[in-house]
Fold this protein.
Amino acid sequence: MRCNGSSEERLPAIKLVALGGTIAGKGADPTRPTQYEPGVLGVDSLIAAVPEIGKLARVSGVQLANMPSYAMTEADWLRLASVVNGLLSDSDCDGVVVAQGTDTLEETAYFLHLTVKSEKPVVLVGAMRPATAMSADGPLNLYNAVALAASRAAYGQGVLLVMNDRIGSARDTVKTNTTAVDAFRAPELGCLGYMTDGQPFLYYASTRLHTSRTEFDTAGLTALPRVEILYGYGGSGRDLADAAVQAGARGIVHAGMGNGGMAPAMREGLADARRQGVAVVSASHAGSGLVTAKEADLRDGFAASGNLPPRKARILLMLALTVTNRPEEIQRMFDLY
């Protein structure tokens, strides 16, 4: 998509959708990068802070929100997906960059990975340090994100993340550190490639279906089915499972021990929830590895998350429940996406 000519009109057209977060944050002391207010700078300020992106693309901004990402809700994801799909449907838009906070960056990215209906590049980006910090990482991250979105190499790759020169798949990349600039990684599977001097070097591609090849259509939806995550530990009871059902949950992801291990009382509560029509997915809080369906899970009608961590499993289960509540169909989706 990037042209070699010098004319600005021949550069790719990239939309920057800003949602706030640390990348738009400001603090009083540049030597204290954890003390700041997120979501202060507007999208125009983000663009102006990196004038070099004007050599990569024709960048224009959309200020969709300006908040910390831990305040984002399912309604925000639905609105974002609608906006991104609308932008990508324009023939004058060659790609979209979404800048937001990092606390839910991996969730937003995977949601878009499953709901964007275009092969055009969509790149998620954030920062671990506010714009006012000494050695802020946001400007280079944003430069790299625009460079990747403007590259033909990103076409058809699904939603990507760029942080600290690494290119990651939205499906597999997670935040692994609270403050480090290299916090975003894909445990075991690794990154897809690197950004170096504004150029993408991609070595791998995800084999799981995404974007225009998924069965999920969020157009017109104003809400998603309620799905709760329950954390498993030694001695965990069934009270939280019962409470989730009473609160109206249509799905529960159990963040279990090891290969999805469940305390006996918790399993009883989740099995009762399944009998009441609540979908249950067994995941793990181990941080890496595969969760497989055990005989007890099959008996109780639970699906297994595979290698999706609990928060991403929740995203997929919410979308799955817009299509079906059948355990075998939900398992098919976890095997496919």
